[in-house]
Design a protein that fits this description.
With 273 residues, the chain is an all-beta fold. Helix content is 0%, strand content 52%. It has two domains: 139 residues, Immunoglobulin-like; 110 residues, Sandwich (Immunoglobulin-like), CATH 2.60.40. It has a four-stranded mixed sheet, with no helix packed on it. Strands 5-4-7-8 form a four-stranded antiparallel sheet, with no helix packed on it. It has a four-stranded antiparallel sheet with strand order 12-11-14-15, with no helix packed on it. It is elongated, with a radius of gyration of 26 Å. InterPro entries: TAT_signal (IPR006311).
């Protein structure tokens, strides 16, 4: 990667802003030689960025991405049309030996004051689970990279595991709500995977229900899908606010996590005075 410095004879700067966002997975920047850009079309000052919006953790794909390049200049000496070489790549942060995964690349001439945009969907099925840098590189008179960390939990969503390979637990406690007279139920759910496949994450549906002992009504107050892996247990906490105050008594909170062969049941008791 080469970086040129600005000459003192330049009174004003040319600004090029490159932005890219994605659903976690992106390409490795392959640094391109400066000769790839026409001398007449080179721009010195440009600032790529990868905004935080739309970059979710625990991404499973596919990747929908959009890349923008905005070229603007008030310097009469700058080219009317700038040439920009761009790449989107995915690079494993903790495994330097892992090859970069190219997502998209190209070159584009852009008129001053105009924005060029490209977007597409990238299939991440073959991307191993891990931590990556979503990287956008833009080259003209110099190359500037920018990146954002993202965690790719699994190349394939929806894999299921048998109950013996799943750990499941939860906590549930009643607390005073300072905003109303109705007590709230704070809960937290953890789901782990202990199977032999360390290269995949697994989807485990779970639910929490509440039932007053001695009564037949059962209230399901929380449900979701846990995405869990050997080195990435799932954790979720939230607050349930009943529409009306729960009457005094002893309640059973039952949690269910669904394996491929059977459900896992965990029951706990809470007392409301």
């Amino acid at each position: 990667m080469t970086t040129a410095s600005a000459s003192s004879s330049i009174d004003r700067r040319t600004f090029v802003k490159a932005t890219a966002w994605s659903v976690p997975v992106i390409a490795t920047a392959v640094a391109l030689p400066l000769a790839a850009a026409s001398v007449q079309n080179n721009a010195m000052f440009f600032f790529p960025s990868v905004p935080s919006a739309d970059l979710a953790n625990d991404f499973t794909g596919p990747l929908s991405y959009t890349a923008n390049i905005f070229y603007d200049s008030t310097d009469a000496g700058d080219p009317t049309i700038g040439l920009f070489i761009w790449t989107l790549t995915l690079k494993n942060i903790y495994d330097e030996s892992a090859p970069s995964i190219p997502i998209a690349n190209g070159s584009q001439e852009i008129n001053k004051g105009e924005t060029w945009t490209t977007s597409d969907v990238f299939d991440t099925t073959a991307v191993p689970r891990g931590y990556y840098r979503v990287t956008l590189d833009v080259t003209s008179a110099r190359t500037i990279p920018t990146w954002r960390g993202i965690r790719v939990l699994a190349p394939i969503a929806g894999l299921r595991a048998p109950a013996d390979d799943i750990t499941f637990d939860f906590t549930a406690e009643m607390h005073d709500d300072i905003f109303s007279d109705i007590d709230v139920l704070n809960y937290a759910v953890t789901v782990g995977y202990t199977g032999a496949d360390a290269d995949r994450a697994y989807t485990v549906p779970w639910t929490l229900t509440l039932q007053k002992q001695g009564e037949t009504d059962v209230l399901q107050f929380a449900t979701s899908d846990a995405l869990t892996a050997v080195d990435g247990p799932y954790y979720h906490d939230n607050t349930y606010r009943p529409p009306t105050a729960l009457t005094a008594g002893t309640y059973t909170v039952e949690g269910t996590a669904q394996g491929t062969d059977r459900p896992i049941l965990v029951r706990k008791t809470i007392v409301i005075a």
